[in-house]
Specification:
heterodimer, A: alpha/beta, 9 strands, B: mainly alpha, ABC transporter involved in vitamin B12 uptake, BtuC, about 80% helix, globular
Amino acid sequence: MAECEALRVESLSVTYNGRTALEDVTFSVQEGERVAVVGPNGAGKSTLFRVIVGLLVPEQGRVEVFGCDPFRRRVPVGYVPQREDVDLSFPVTVADVVMMGRVREMGWLRWPSQRDREVVRQALEEVGLLQLADRRLDELSGGQLQRTFIARALAQQAPLLLMDEPFAGVDAASEEAILELLDRLQARGVTVLLATHDLTLAASRFDRVLLLNTRIIAYGPPGEALCPATLQRAYGGQLAIWEHERGLMLVGDVHCSGGRR
Amino acid sequence: MNWLLEPLTYPFMVRGLIAALAVGVTCAVLGTYVVLRGMAFFGDALAHAILPGVAIAYLARWPLLAGALAAGLVTAFAIGSLQNRVREDTAIGIVFSGAFALGVALLSTVRTYTTDLTHFLFGNVLGVSPADLWLTLALGGGVLLVVAAFFKEFLVMSFDPVLARTLRLPTTFLRYLLLVMLAVTVVASLQTVGVALVVAMLVTPPATAYLLTRRFLPMMALAAGFGLFAAVAGLYLSYYLNLPSGPAMVLVCTAVFLLVLPFSSRRRQILGGR
């Protein structure tokens, strides 16, 4: 892993629709790291991503992406929102949507070049959708749609990728395809932040876990960040109800083993 | 064949035909964005709200374009600032009818009121002067050039505004550019279709194309084809049946749409929600 800092967030506070969404959030991510962002509903995970990608302006604090302000950055940041609010009957194919990720790279007054088409082809192959390139969006399953938007983020060739709940409402095949993709991205040194509800996944597949509930409750390797005390603080009374046995079993597991990987 | 060629022996008919063709293509191309972005009501409102600007310019003998553009921008701004207080469609309704009423009131102060108003509302393709024709061609050509130049940016913005912002595209600039182009297109269409019906030329050809294709560029090309056909067919209808040119062109558009409708698997999407 390079020593370079991919992301630095400093004393970030955001008020969203009249309530505090994030308060005094400070952390940094090294290039090539894979970070799971976990926390209860309304913890500010999506807000955090929207600030990092430059969709929201924070009242306080600072965000730096590879040393640049998100509003002035030259480095592309790939962002896969939790739910794409798009018209699925829009007359575009899967390949057209992925090509949209290239628009900034192409530059003004340019049409897609051979190289752009090749990047799109690779991105589609990467998520296993090459044979569906000419499909329309309303012909896709939820998982295929999610993979289309991930391919679009890949086509930006961004060194930093943010994925907000990519596994929500996704079939098992798509989940496996996304997980395999994460491994290949890490081998290439792409930094990934991924918000998820799945604590098992966060503990087993990520270098670091950011446990968030408006403030940062814990940040570190899964074994340190996820323990009964921190989970209790993040989820409060919710934990027993939420995730049922699976979540509780995980807590014990991580606590005893002191963290894997 | 003679009935096809006969009208073209009059220079004013040739000018009218060229103007109608330019308007048919320009409206259809820009209208593709209007349809896909769900801006039909907004486009209609903008067209009507341009009337006071045109009326003032007409009365003061300023260039009509300047008045129309100013009115278009004021309208877009007024609708935008009212949106925080009432729902968007309500805001459009208020601004649109208010501006339109002002335009009619202003025009009523002229002696030739009825003729002038009819011409602005429904077009007067036979009155296209050589200067009008050049203006229409220049405006239409300008709009087509801008669409070609920002084609992929407009596509991204129409499909997914959030992506447009994360890609750091100048979304506010592009949105206003689209509004300015709408205003320009309405002005270009003033002589041939008129403000009351221009929305049909914007919306119906792309909607017909949408029934037939699943790709964006073919949709735009097909829409332009339907727009051209409506311009020619409408003009001949207008010549032989002595109809105003605007309604004639719009009726052709509507007829083509109704003809295509039974052959489309997508008709449920366009009529009655998604």
